[in-house]
Amino acid sequence: MSSPNETQNLRDLARLRRVRDRIDREYARPLDVEALARGAHMSAGHLSREFRRVYGESPYSYLMTRRIERAKALLRRGDLSVTEVCFAVGCSSLGTFSTRFSELVGMSPSAYRAQFTDDRATDAPGEIPSCLSKQVTRPVRNREARAATPPLA
């Protein structure tokens, strides 16, 4: 028999999983922590604390990571402008989108797009499989990238 605390923790984990799944599905729609919390029957503060504890980042950071991940794929296609990509992934401000993109990717959206447009012009080899592309192109926050490099001494 499980204790009431264990039962509550399992319920909270299930709610957090549903929140994460909702972000994955609806990243292009207007989402904020309050709306996500209402859908999970939690307060915004509790949702933020528990989401960070379980997944290692805030719901907003997770949402922006999903949006930037999708934006990278759209920019690699090369048929949409940066502004069109910004709105297609659910961002309402081009400035905020560009700032977040640069934070996560390490270059501006237009520089990222130009990099892939230039590669196509030089007859780059064919596409890599999507299972590898998702792993390789997942945005990584700059502080995580710095932590991943081993010390020299």
TrEMBL record:
SMART domains, alphabetized: HTH_ARAC
The record ties this protein, via Pfam families, to: HTH_18
SUPFAM superfamilies from the UniProt entry: Homeodomain-like
The Swiss-Prot or TrEMBL record annotates one GO molecular function as:
DNA-binding transcription factor activity
Sorted alphabetically, the keyword list is: DNA-binding, Transcription, Transcription regulation
Q: Which domain of life is it from?
A: Bacteria
Domain annotation HTH araC/xylS-type: ranges: 17-115
Extract the InterPro entries matched here.
Answer: AraC_XylS_family_regulators, Homeodomain-like_sf, HTH_AraC
Mind telling me which PANTHER family this protein's record contains? HTH-TYPE TRANSCRIPTIONAL ACTIVATOR RHAS-RELATED (PTHR46796)
Q: What is this protein called?
A: Transcriptional regulator, AraC family
